[in-house]
Amino acid sequence: GIPPPPDAFGSIPLDELCARASDRQLDRWEGSFTAQGGESRIMGLSISPLKEPEMGFVVIFQDLTELRHLEEKLKKAEKLTALGQMAASIAHEVRNPLASMSGSIQILKDSLHVEDENRKLMDIVLRETGRLDYLVGDFLTYARPPTPHFQDVDLRTIIEETVRFFQSSPESASVDIDLDLPAGPAVLSVDSSQIRQILINLLKNSVDSITGSGRIGIALKREEGKSGLETILLLSDDGSGISEDILPVLFEPFKTTKERGSGLGLAIVYQLVEAHQGRIEVQSREGVGTVISISLPPWRSE
Predict the structure, then answer these.
(1) How many domains does the chain have?
(2) What average pLDDT does the segment 91-117 reach?
């Protein structure tokens, strides 16, 4: 394996590093550096003495950032493959009995004359079986993400319809949603259902973070980003915000601060954004609110 970086590597003179290489104390090393712009990069170093030591050494620096990120993606893909196989089994072993239980209780509730107290118990069973079915569905979506079916759509239409649908649900009753959309068409090749799911998951998260009444803002822009002209979808809220210790693991599966959350909503969002060749970034302050930015390829005006 590659040894850990020597202490205070940047302050060790090159001749001392070469001496270590001659003694085989150091021949390969990698570690994290912070670039001038503040970006963290993974750098590799190798030092090899020439055949004749007095002739010198070959010192090679290499930026390994993209390679290590690719390795992490491959490891994640392998884990998801195994997870997907397990998910198929769970769907069969859990979902089928849930459907039988829910259907049976619904038939009994509709066909029998039961007391109010027993009817309430039946409603609890139906509600909880529905919740479990939803959790299994989330797990399946994450473990075996559907292949996106891209087609040209106006993003404004997707956003407006999704917000209208969400506003019809009881959970959004105490929240105002403000839209800031371009006046003209914003046509982009996307999977409409997956973009809707991204929006719904983010809206639910925002509502959960708001105590009492609050505001959510959704904006769609086209501006210069890290890779040139980009479509920027912004969702902001004035909720409780996200603590600094949660931010680094925010999109990891099964990470949740909710009592009844699955910890998969944001993990699914991250997957779907990646499937659209996009990226997602979060800025948040506890007690102030959160801004989530999704960057996608640039839209067309027609």
Answers:
(1) 3
(2) 79
